[in-house]
Amino acid sequence: MELSVKEVISRCPLFARVKPEHLQPLIDIATVHRLEPDQRVFNQGDPCPGVFIVANGLVRIFKLAPTGKEYVLHLVSPGQTFAEVAAIGGYPCPANAQAIAETTCVLLPTEPFMTILRTQHELCLEIMTGMCAWVRTLVGLLEDITLRDATSRVARMISDLTNTAAGDVQLPAMKKHMASHLNLTSETLSRTLRRLADLGVIESDNQSLRVIDQEQLKSIAVGELM
Amino acid sequence: MELSVKEVISRCPLFARVKPEHLQPLIDIATVHRLEPDQRVFNQGDPCPGVFIVANGLVRIFKLAPTGKEYVLHLVSPGQTFAEVAAIGGYPCPANAQAIAETTCVLLPTEPFMTILRTQHELCLEIMTGMCAWVRTLVGLLEDITLRDATSRVARMISDLTNTAAGDVQLPAMKKHMASHLNLTSETLSRTLRRLADLGVIESDNQSLRVIDQEQLKSIAVGELM
DNA sequence: CGAATACTTGAAATTATTCAAGGGCCGTGG
DNA sequence: CCACGGCCCTTGAATAATTTCAAGTATTCG
Predict the structure, then answer these.
(1) Measured from the CB, is A185 under 7 Å from any atom of strand C?
(2) Is the model's pTM score more than 0.90?
(3) From the C1' of D9, which residue's alpha carbon is nearest?
(4) Nearest CA in chain B to A182
(5) How far B62 CA lies from chain A's nearest CA (Å)?
(6) With CB atoms counted within 10 Å of each terminal CB, which end of chain A scores lower, N or C?
(7) A63 vs B118, B143, B223: nearest CB
């Protein structure tokens, strides 16, 4: 199923409410990029190519420590954008980006995008709203990592996933990447899922989970009991 | 030293580049608030009163866990703003705000502020730039907390403080609040400062620090050796 | 001066990580 | 079709980092 550039952009929440006549300039500057699994999109410190919109596939944005440890900041799924903050703020890329599946992206290159943004007030407001949501997500991540223990974090992640799709949940990425996003090792994630399964809160199949006791899952997620 | 509302707004980086004629509407809606030490400005979940600009004093923005543990997300010093993301995004307050000194704030109330923002493209662009910087800060915090150990984090904090003011550094807030911001207990911060002092990297007076060996401090900050 | 609160320090406890090994899944190539 | 190699995931035991608990000292403010 191939999407047109127009469809990709207009399905992206960040641009969904932009009027068609204001959308056209964006479509005109857009380029399409096909990425192989494991292919790097950019590295930390690179000049920012522009705003990427994921059409399909999956991209991970991650930071690398000198020790080699990596932290997955964002798993970017279809309809979501990445690098928009660096593009708008005029920063170099603050992290590395890598496709972790066969992926197609639409790119709105920095310079022409900024030119449009400087003249399109409506677009500007939409982007700002989107950025507010991103800030909120980041604050949520910080809260999660600083205030909750491993069990709560994992429970919360599962809870969030089931809010989107009920019943059987497919993990969006490899467990090691999910673990990193929660600032855990994959070993700890593995053990935690085991414990939740032993408690009868979830069933943990290989690549998918099923929530058995939503009540208890949520109470674990907010940090009560264990 | 009393500042006028106009001065407070125009000294704030977020509004500094807004042209005087566009500044006036903001001045017109602004209200001034005087806060006693320890006084709450708002609590998590409250409807967002608007954009606060700190004129002088200090405000801490913090999250509270059910366990009672708190995480200091932001120590807001004069010239900085807080609650702007909630105001613009239309969210309730995502955290608690409390003055931790005699503080004066200028408040731009949500509704009129948003009305202005919806018509002032220039202002919108400025705010967006400011929000990019805030995202960057948050990502930096996440990186710090997930990728570095206690010693590196403390070294980095000191290093950042000395970039602003050379030589003798006054800590902007109580050590327990600084510790919380780095996701450490005050005990760990205390011990870490002790260790850095024993290594001859810093001198740790009561409320102020002095950097002795900037080279080594930076190498510890990026995670090399100990 | 006295009380309250912040800070420091030591020892014990805890959480999560690291190290190590085995099992399972998948794609490649015989 | 099956065997092999690679990588991911799981599990256990040991380790390490930070927290917690507890006590004492210092500082500030009334």
Answers:
(1) yes
(2) yes
(3) A190
(4) B146
(5) 10
(6) N
(7) B143
Write the residue in A73, A142, A224 that is nearest to B73 by C-beta: A142
Q: Which strand (E) or helix (H) includes residue A81? A: strand A81-82
- Report all structural domains of chain A as residue ranges with CATH numbers, in order of start: 5-143 (2.60.120.10), 148-221 (1.10.10.10)
Nucleotide nearest to A205 (CA to C1'): D9
Cα–Cα distance measured from residue A106 to residue A82, given in angstroms and rounded to the nearest whole number: 11
Residue A75 parent element (H or E)? strand A70-76
Asked if B226 reaches chain A (Cβ–Cβ under 8 Å), the answer is no
Dihedral sign from CA coordinates of A110, A113, A118, A121:
negative
* Nearest residue in chain B measured CA to CA from A142: B142
Task: Per-residue pLDDT tens, chain A, 226 aa: give them.
Answer: 678 999 999 999 999 999 999 999 999 999 999 999 999 999 999 999 999 999 999 999 999 999 999 999 999 999 999 999 999 999 999 999 999 999 999 999 999 999 999 999 999 999 999 999 999 999 999 999 999 999 999 999 999 998 776 678 899 999 999 999 999 999 999 999 999 999 999 999 888 899 999 999 999 999 865 5
Enter the tokens of residue B131.
Answer: 């929000």
* Displacement of CA B91 from its chain's centroid (Å): 20
Secondary structure letter of residue B92 according to DSSP: B
Q: At what angle do helices B110-119 and B121-147 cross, to 10 degrees?
A: 110
